[in-house]
Structures are given as structure tokens and as C-alpha cells.
Amino acid sequence: MTSHTPPSVDQRTSLPKIKPGTRLKGTQAAEFGQQVVAAYATLSIRAICAETDRSYGAIYRILRRAGVTFRKRGYQHPFAPIETAESSS
Asked: Do residues 53 and 44 touch, judged by C-beta distance below 8 A?
């Protein structure tokens, strides 16, 4: 069984910290949205929130507007094929 370890700071994307209450408009909002979508491939919404200082709802709305398919809730165990007696021979 493998254990889950959160990504280290070195593995995380370099998302910008945005001062709380700041509205993003135009190209700045579009660029930030692209960065958030790319980060969601490896990070959870909560991890993105922590890195950017944005709320869960703000990050969720960005992802929803981008048409991202959300992962199921909770830790998703990586696929590990089950060895059978036939395949180990």
C-alpha cells in the first residue's frame, strides 16, 4: 500500500499571491485563471487557495467557468494492478 504525501514546496507551481479583496480584471484575470487550471492538475483546490490567498469559492468558480472536470472528494488512491497467480508465474 502506498502512502499519500502532499507535494513539497519544490513540486508546487509558482502561483501568485493576490492581496485579499483585490479584483482581477481582463488579461490579469484570464492569466490567473489559466495558472489555476494548470495547478489543479497536481494540487487540490484547498492547496491552491493556500498558495494564492484566494477563497475556496473564488478558486472553485474559476475552475467551473473554465469547464474543468472536478475530481471526486477525498484522497483518490492511485491505480495499482492486482497480481494474480497466473501473472506472477
From this structure: no
